[in-house]
Amino acid sequence: MVRYSITMDEKLVQKIDADSKSQGMSRSDWISEVCTTQFPELDGSGLPQVNHDHTLGSKHNITDYDETYNSFSIDVPEYYNFSFDVIDALAKKDRNKLAMIWVNQKGEEKKYTFRDLSRLSNQVANMLIKYGPAKGERVLIMLPRVPEWWFFVLGMIKMGVVYCPAPTMLTEQDLKYRINAADIKMVITNKENADKVDAIFDECPSLASKFIVDDEREGWISYPVELAYPAPVSSKLVAFEGLERTKSTDPMLIFFTSGTTGEPKMVLHDHSYALGHIVTGRFWHDVRSNDLHFTVADTGWGKSTWGKLFGQWNEGAAIMVYDIRGKFHATELLPIIEKYGVTTFCVPPTIYRMMILAELEKYDFSELRHCCSAGEPLNPEVIKVWKKATGHTIYEGYGQTETVLCIGTFPSMEARFGSMGKPAPGWQIEIHDDEGNPAAPHVEGHIAIKMDPRPVGLFREYINNDAENAKSFSDGYYYTGDKAYTDEDGYFWFVGRDDDVIKASGYRIGPFEVESALIEHPAVQEAAVVGTPDVIRGQVVKAFVVLSPGHAPSESLIHDIQNYVKKVTAPYKYPRVIEFVDSLPKTISGKIRRKELKQKEQEKHAKKIKTMEHKGDLKKDREQK
Q1: Top-level CATH class of 501-598?
Q2: What angle do the packed helices 10-22 and 27-38 form, to 10 degrees?
Q3: 0.85 exceeded by pTM
Q4: Which residues on neighbouring strands pair with residue 255, listed in sequence order?
Q5: What's the rounded Cα separation, in Å, for the pair 612 and 355?
Q6: Nearest 5 degrees, angle CA 3-CA 9-CA 11?
Q7: N- to C-terminal Cα distance for the chain?
Q8: Where in the chain is the domain with CATH 3.30.300.30?
Q9: Which residue pairs from 107-113 have beta carbons closer than 8 angstroms and sit at least 24 positions apart in sequence?
């Protein structure tokens, strides 16, 4: 170690001492951290994208939104591979650096360093060399939250194989559709789900091989066998003729959208998508190299790449993985946050709503410093209760399967309840009217993402779907299919999907705002809002409501909920019809299937009209007689 003597201004000394104290480090450690941050070329990795701390000891990574938004950009190299350029680079820099803590509901625990991930993913890559598939071919991976999911994903990325994550809840029909639509060559799964694959194997012409990670099974490649027989597979990547570097524009990943309005679309991302999540991890999740981040998300969905893969490991942080198999209670997460010292945390609003029912004051949140949420309305009361218990507000954000975090509430800005926030650094986003012109503040329109320059992290295309591509990409913009409006300060406010907007009595009503108002009522646990046919108004707002424990359906409760909504949002938006239900129809990713609710309402209306017409015919017959 070489020590230097430096002279500093008194004010600078005071600032450093205050910042280092707030972060629990010495002055010399603070200075060392800043030097490493500001001169990444000196750390030996040669990879400025493998970020550490960018904040000169400040409390958050983004300290001035406007300054960061105007100056930030991501330099995308011609050749890029997340597994080599991030995971292997971190492994070389610090062989003992923690990358993952895995724990299941039984309390069993495993820990992995970046060196472990580098070696284990090399083993997977060597197996793929042996059995295929080749670079550019597609593999469906369907595993629960087990460490092998990460080993195989990183190994496939190294090989240039295009991976397609799938949730374990998929049925045989779901699997058959995905395998045939995406021309899948291999399926990777576990013994719990192998029967589903075998059942449809003969109906999937492209499917050439099956890989099982935790068993030996006839007709399947066995991961345990390959690891041990006849000798352990090498943890050094085998060099062979034809092994090519991946370009940043090469295909890397296919997501299937959750299909709220029809068959799932295939969303193609290239290797630069991993770089795009620098914005997600660094600015929204606010992670740093010494953080432990905990996102609760299934490995089969896009959110896993946001909070359990690219977003955090880009920054050199560790991830917390909780493997949920049995019945899940949200309060199970609280002891995990406390025991492992989770520092940054992201879960859907539903989980926050369930967690605040626990005695939060019993838990130690002293190491927690940043919390996020996205995907559905988060009522202000939940945010207030959570902040009172933990000292932290909940930062909301917006993105899609097709994007990274592209609109968010960031630590340096005022958090406004119900708002998605402002465009993420690197993303130019506008609200357009139906003619493609910019909409004025408080006028709802279509969320439009500017394509020049193309934001890093935006998908390339919908595979084999010219109609959707033409609809989504138009006149230099990508239209997300969502509606929103901005306020006079540039904050974005979500309205709903284009096809979810309700037209009633000349008004256009977004279901999101009504649902947000509904779930603020103490009796409402969940709510879904759709338009239901009405003879006079064309449509009226109808709410399907799941009641909180301790509340029972009644006419007086309906009136109380309606009056409450009238007070917290524009009166014309209140639900004229409320139906209490035990549960809401959802996709396997947890999104409410409003289309299904609307379809049922239309069928009920058609049946009602038919009955009325029949009664009218009977009346005419009687009058004629």
Answers
A1: alpha beta
A2: 90
A3: no
A4: 267
A5: 48
A6: 120
A7: 109
A8: 501-598
A9: 110/147, 112/147
